[in-house]
Amino acid sequence: MKRRYLPVLLAVSLASVTLLAQEETVGGDTLIYKAVEELPRFPGCENLDTTIAVKRQCAEASLLDFIYSNIDYPAQARRDGIEG
Q1: Which of 10, 18, 37, 69 is 20 to 30 Å from 50 by CA-CA measure?
Q2: What per-residue confidence (pLDDT) applies to 80?
């Protein structure tokens, strides 16, 4: 009967040793930001020497141009007025 529990006891003891061997490390910046100073933008407008609002408008226009040029909507669905 004792030999029956020996492998289980050995496995549990080895598992606990490996858990104790791990160190808890806190790396880098632990400060949690609630807001960012500047939101990410669609590429192509970050080198403009202008205000953030103009850069945002440029990025939104670039994003829409990208979407409109890469979307492939079926012609039959467009003729039938199917959306979604």
Answers
A1: 69
A2: 94
